Each structure stands twice: as C-alpha cells, then as structure tokens.
Queue: 2 jobs
Job 1
Amino acid sequence: FPAYPTLLTDARGSILTITVNRPDALNALSSKVIEDLEHCIGAVSEALTNDDGAWPVRGVVITGAGKAFVAGADIREMTDMTPDEAHAYSSRMQQVTLAIEQLPVPVVAAVNGFALGGGCELAMACDMIYAASTASFGQPEVSLGLVPGFGGSVRLPQYVGQALARELLFTGRRLTAEEAHNAGLVAAIFETVDDLLDGARNTLELVARQSPAAVALVKKTVGQTQGLPTRDGLKIEADAFRQAFTTADKAEGTRAFLAKERPSFPGR
Ligand code: CO8
C-alpha cells in the first residue's frame, strides 16, 4: 500500500497499520485526511475483493502519530464552511466509517492519545478499540456549538448505553482510558504505546490463524444485527450459518479438527 500525504502505511505480514500523520494539528481530520482515508480504505477493500482465496490483508490497525490519536475534525477548516458544505463534509467522513465497517477483515483502533470528537467517532467505527493508558475519549462538540457529525450520536450509545452516552454528549466530558474500559468502549488497555501497537497486532495475528471466510462472515453478521430486535437478528444469523456451510474453509476446518490436524484454510 502506498503512503498518502497525511497517512503512513506499514504492512507487516498480513497486518496493515495506518497512522494518521498530522501531529502538529493533533491529527485533526482535515478534508485531505478524510480523502486519504477514503482512498486508503478503498485500496484495502479492492485488494480483498478477489474470489481466489488470497487475503493479502488479514487485519488493519488505525493509530495516530505523536501524542494524539485524532483530536477531532479540523476546527480551523470548519470556520468558513457553509451549512451545505458541512453536510457534505459530515456525509463524506460517515462514508469512510461505513467503508471501515464493511471491510471483510477486522480493524483495531489503537488509541495512543486524545480521541476526541471525530477521533472518537473514527475509533468507534473500528471493530475493537485498544487504548494506551494515556488515551482519552470524548465528544466535545457542544463546547464548540457543534454536534457530532461522523457517527458519535449513533455509535456512542451502542457502545456505552444511553445514560453515559447522553451525559458525555451533553457535557463534552472526557473519559480516561480506564473509565472508557470500564464503560465498555475500550476492549483492552496497555501501559505504553509500543505495547498498545504490539497488542493490536498480536490480536490480529490470532485472527489471521482462523478461517478468513468465517471471520468476514461473522464481522458482517455482527454489523448487520446491531440494534435489531432479537428475532430479526437471529434470522440474519441463521442465514450466515447457512452461508458458512457453502465455504471450503468450513470443510477444511471441520475435517482438520476430526483428523486432529491444524487446518489450512483455503480462504473461500
Ligand atoms: N482541529 C484543528 N487543529 C487542532 C485540533 C482540531 N480539532 N485540535 C488541536 N489542534 C491544533 C491546535 O490548534 C494546536 O495548533 P497550534 O500549535 O498551531 O496552535 C495544535 O493542534 C496543538 O494543540 P494544543 O496546543 O491545543 O494541544 P494541548 O495539548 O494543549 O491540548 C487538546 C490538546 C485538549 C486535544 C486540544 O487541542 C483540544 O481541545 N483540541 C480540540 C478537540 C476538539 O474539540 N475536538 C472536536 C472537534 S469537532 C468534531 O470533531 C466534530 C466532528 C464532526 C464534524 C462534522 C461537521 C462538519
């Protein structure tokens, strides 16, 4: 994967790390960052659309350069925006968050520092949030006369429940890494940023040993069933279960188990 003007990319084995790299502005999501994220996530998606069982990427880590993960949308850029331009800006980044959710491989947000506003929203679009002990999370939009525009009003209640989400959205109060962990926003905390990146990559290495087809299918199912009534969610799950039975990975996984061997998944 190429580097982009505002992003660094680092592929180690099948794990791709994307680093938002505008440390002087605490990695704020300018239109250029959003465009680069759009192209980079698009390139990953394209690399994974082959049906030949090749999975050049098995997991993605998103992190930030310097002391912030992402300190929000670019406040400077928003000063002269018209309401219609703001709508287009919000919609464009929302599409990026949906593209992350639609990737067939897991994405871990490795939150190394401030994840505020659009930064918290970018993290919440990922499959899992891991945090360094110095990370903090919040939706401070109301302190600027703004509201979340990249999914915060929708995804934050899904992560932490209505009561805490509303408190955070109405007050702009920040959560420490530990509070975010206790609230269910963060899956794991690491002492240092190096440990954080190792932890994110180790989890994705573990994922890479499983059936790629099954991981893609379960990611899709979890995404599709969020917020649905149980009965409707269960129907989608049964369809996914059926689909697993059409894959070569299922044949290999169950065969290898019974033969007491390690599976060699075809990836289809
Ligand atoms: N946008 C632009 N520049 C920023 C941003 C930002 N969000 N955050 C920090 N910076 C810049 C600062 O202006 C400063 O630049 P300079 O050195 O040129 O003065 C540099 O980064 C360093 O920042 P600080 O000096 O403020 O660093 P501190 O360590 O003192 O403070 C904080 C760190 C607490 C993170 C502080 O920078 C801060 O509060 N930042 C803003 C956080 C925030 O409010 N984020 C929410 C933005 S709104 C949003 O995300 C809405 C999303 C949806 C919008 C869709 C609608 C179109």
Note: The pocket of octanoyl-coenzyme A is lined by residues 25-26, 28, 71-76, 78, 86, 89-90, 114, 116-118, 140-141, 144, 146, 148-150 (CB under 6 Å).
Job 2
Amino acid sequence: MVLQQLGGSISRALQQMSNATIIDEKVLNECLNEITRALLQSDVQFKLVRDMQTNIKKIVNLDDLAAGHNKRRIIQQAVFNELCKILDPGKPSFTLKKGKTSVVMFVGLQGSGKTTTCTKYAFHHQKKGWKPALVCADTFRAGAFDQLKQNATKAKIPFYGSYMESDPMKIAVEGVERFKKENCDLIIVDTSGRHKQETALFEEMRQVSEATKPDLVIFVMDSSIGQAAFDQAQAFKQSVAVGAVIITKMDGHAKGGGALSAVAATKSPIIFIGTGEHMDEFEVFDVKPFVSRLLG
Ligand code: GDP
C-alpha cells in the first residue's frame, strides 16, 4: 500500500529532526515542511494539511518548553495526535445491535467497490453470529444483481433482487420487508452508483433512503480517488445521512491520502478498509493502531 510511503516519509522527517543537535525553530520548520510535502504528495487535502501544521506549531511552542523537556517526544506525539485527528471525526458510528433488525444502506460511485463491500460486510457479521441479508436495489448497472447473487450464494447469505423490476425503491422496500419477516438482524441495501456525481444518482439515493429508513448509511470510497475525494464525499453527505465510511482497494498502488479526506468531508468515521478482491480481505479500522503502523 502506498500509504506506507507516506508513513516512511513522515518517520524520516521525524528522525532527521531527532538527529539535530539542538531543536530550534528552524529544525522544527524543516521537519514540518517535510511532513507537509509528504502529505500533499499523498493527496491529503490542502486545508487539512495546513491546519495540521498550524496545530502542531501551536502545541509545540519551543520557547515555552522548559529546559529539560523532551522536545523530540513532544513533537512526535503532536504529529501522531494530529494524524489521528484527521482520521477521527470525534464521534463513533452508530452501533448496530445483534438480534435487533437494522437496515444498512450502501452508497458510492460505480466501481468504488460497493457491491463487493456489501458482501464483505455481510460475511464479516455472519461470522460473528449475525443473520445478514442482501438486497440489490441497483437497477442501473446491468449485471449488478448477478454479481450480488453470486457473492451472496458463495457466502450463503440470503439475497433479494429482480431482473425485471426497474424501480429501485420498489425492490428496496420489498427486500427489506421480506427480510424483516424472516427475522434477519442486518439487512444490507446495495444501491446504484454512476460513474460521476449526477443529480439523478443523488435523487435516487434520497428516495431509496426515504423508503427504507436505514439505521446507518455507509459511504464506500475507492482509495485511489486522489484530491477529488473531499468534494465527492461531501456531495454524498449532502444528499443522504452518511454515518460511516469504508475505504476500498487499500491493497492497491493508490496514494491513498485522498480517501483520508472523506472523514473530514462526511464527519463520519472509517469503520472498515478493503484490502483485496476476496470476501475476507476486509479489516476493521481503528485510528490509533493504523497511524502507529503508518509511522512504523
Ligand atoms: P461497484 O460498482 O461500486 O459495486 O464496484 P464492485 O463491487 O463491482 O467493484 C469494482 C471492482 O473493484 C471489482 O473488480 C472488485 O473486485 C474490485 N474491488 C472491490 N474492493 C476491492 C479491494 O478492496 N481491493 C481490490 N484490489 N479490489 C477491490
């Protein structure tokens, strides 16, 4: 994953600073500029990077640090905390309860990995004793239902969809109703995507959301999205009540930083990351271990 390069660059900048005999304003600035460059090169949004730099400078006031304080540790800790802050919206995602019916709606652009992620999410919960079910409300993309059906069958998860019906709302409502009757506790609705952010897509999402009243809306984003990430995530958030984010293709060669902006844009936490095409290539996302790993 190329995000590791970002981690490597930040660690090197911190190490260089540590090698300096005296840590003064100049050394601190050089270190922060290096970190800023690394973040921007990884497509993290400019405003986030600028805020991070300002915050670190505020926390690390070299003049105020009494002699004997370990400046290096304070700076390293500040960098760690600021990276965590970018990834932590400050509130956890809505917690679903096993045994109590929850409807979870997935949204995202076509190709983001939404359908694959729906099954991974269902499979993850099934292994933990939930009773998930999948509803294919994507009537836009030919083959979407077949794909969901194939994945669901492989994972032995019940599914609902139609080759004939073209109204996504009708399918969504029927599917949710059916699985409620069957006492499924996690009903996952896969919605349609488009290649671009289009009015028609957002209108359809709004309608499916109104019709199915999801307990949680999960926004799926491809980690290779780059600088377009912030605007895209914000556009989705403005249309439906996104409550959590899943970043896919973290195994790929994308720079990855853009996807981090999705947290700031949606004010929602990343709850899982996709690390491959297979059903079990899916990891729970926790901010602190992730940043620790990133910084090595
Ligand atoms: P959708 O159009 O958003 O529903 O996207 P799909 O679920 O059809 O996924 C598009 C492509 O991305 C497929 O070839 C998936 O196998 C692939 N994909 C999805 N998630 C991941 C991931 O985490 N890693 C990798 N390498 N590929 C993924």
Note: Residues 36 and 50 are 8 Å apart (CA to CA).
